[in-house]
Design brief:
The termini are far apart. The chain has 16 helices and eleven strands. The chain folds into two domains: 204 residues, Cytochrome Bc1 Complex, Chain A, domain 1 (2-Layer Sandwich), CATH 3.30.830; 191 residues, 2-Layer Sandwich (Cytochrome Bc1 Complex, Chain A, domain 1), CATH 3.30.830.10. 45% of the residues lie in helices and 19% in strands. The protein is α+β, with helices and mostly antiparallel strands.
Length: 420
């Protein structure tokens, strides 16, 4: 796997990642324009703007024209908005690379943000918001982030507020685009059946005007006081739990140990949470521990869907697993199994052009790094037993625990005792 990079005079960074043995190319544009760039008055504009890029530009003038352009060569295209960046991609056969670039460049450089389309899209996004509210498996993660990070940009979900969705204007979209959709704040990565010469082709399709990013990432205040738990009372057939804590930033030296710790706790079907809480106690159907990482902080959470009558028992069981690993450590077998699991999953990622493009694009955009997959595997293999145990003793302290739940009312006094 060869990586070729080029930075244009205007600051636009380009990457071509050669993947032998495939005839597929993913073309991915990443822009530092996620929800952490928003203050409360424009909370949700990053996500809404992502939608508007698909609503017509200079060459492909309507949403239908955009869709037909990609459908005409059997491509896949989509976009997403995260906390720290937004992404736009087309996945296609190698012979259609120029067509993919043509569609994406028209969207990025010439979108009109037509007023009539904005009005129509308000309803679409409000329905998207309603969908998430009706889907506790989605909503629980946003509730937990709000609980842990508080009322600051990192604690707000990407979809934003109803007030913004109902009131945002064409001028606001254009101003936000000028502030963040600049060449120095953008990385374009092509991965798959590509070579170094394809970087010149990418550059031809993206003649960005020379502009500088003028809006900053919202700072994170780690000392902001937050509550111990947050419960969204809702009639459900299953109670949704998220029990966890604030953890480490993605480039923290201990981050590989955090990934190993989380895998041992609940990263797969042979992990402690699945085996003890589900298989032995029968308290849930789904349960998983996972890491959410950002440039300056992160989360470790265990999420589960449990029987309505077993909520407090399930919370106690999850807490017990945290306490056990903190007090008694991990076994050599668990350590080896977790490291092998993470390395194996890393290998699987290298089969997918979209995964490859995202990996290199994200590292370049956020960290100006080109860490390859073998380097990451080396960091995982270097994790020692004492690294995991020392980290567990530090971060799994009871005072760090936070709980978010969605479902019928539960006994809050008993809950507080379980998580304190």
């Amino acid at each position: 796997m060869n990586i070729h990079s080029k930075t244009l005079p205007n600051g636009l960074r380009l990457q071509a990642v050669e993947m032998p043995g495939t005839n597929v190319v993913t073309t991915l544009i990443l822009v530092g324009a996620g929800s952490r760039y928003e203050d409360l008055s424009i909370a949700g504009i990053s996500h809404f703007l992502e939608h508007m890029f698909f609503k017509g530009a200079r060459k492909y003038k309507t949403p239908k024209a955009v869709a037909e352009a990609v459908d005409s060569f059997g491509g896949e295209f989509n976009a997403f908005t995260g906390k720290e960046y937004a992404g736009y991609y087309v996945k296609s056969g190698a012979e259609n690379l120029k067509k993919s670039l043509d569609v994406l460049s028209d969207m990025m450089l010439h979108s009109r943000f037509d007023s009539a389309e904005i009005e129509k899209e308000r309803g679409v996004i409000l329905e998207e918001m309603a969908m998430y509210l009706d889907a506790p498996m989605y909503q629980i993660s946003w509730d937990f982030e709000r609980l842990v990070f508080g009322d600051q940009p990192l604690g707000r979900d990407q979809i934003g507020t109803k007030e913004l969705i109902k009131s945002v204007t064409q001028d606001q979209f254009k101003e936000y685009q000028r502030e963040l959709y600049t060449p120095d704040n953008t990385v374009i990565t092509i991965a798959g059946a590509v070579s170094e010469k394809d970087l010149d082709t990418v550059a031809e399709f993206f003649p960005f005007p020379t502009m500088k990013k003028s809006r900053s990432l919202g700072t994170f205040d780690p000392n902001l006081k937050t509550e111990k738990f947050k419960i969204r009372i809702k009639k459900t057939e299953q109670y949704h739990i998220s029990l966890g804590l604030r953890a480490l930033a993605e480039r923290d030296p201990q981050f590989p140990a955090l990934k190993v710790l989380t895998t041992i706790l609940g990263g797969n079907m042979s992990a402690r949470m699945f085996q003890h809480v589900r298989e032995q106690k029968g308290l849930c159907y789904s349960i998983r521990s996972l890491v959410d990482e950002y440039t300056d902080t992160g989360l470790l959470t265990t999420r589960a869907g449990v029987k309505l009558g077993d909520v407090l028992d399930a919370v106690g069981a999850i807490r017990s697993e945290y306490d056990d690993i903190r007090n008694n450590g991990v076994t050599d077998q668990e350590l080896l199994k977790a490291k092998n699991f993470l390395c194996g999953k890393t290998d699987l990622r290298t089969e997918d052009t979209e995964e490859i493009a995202h990996h290199y694009g994200k590292n370049t955009l956020l960290y100006s790094l080109e860490e390859d997959f073998e380097e990451w595997k080396q960091k995982i293999r270097a994790v020692q037993k004492h690294d995991v145990e020392s980290l567990a003793q530090t971060i799994l302290a009871p005072e760090n625990l936070r709980f978010s739940g969605i479902g019928p009312q539960i006994k809050e006094e008993k809950l507080l005792k379980l998580i304190s």
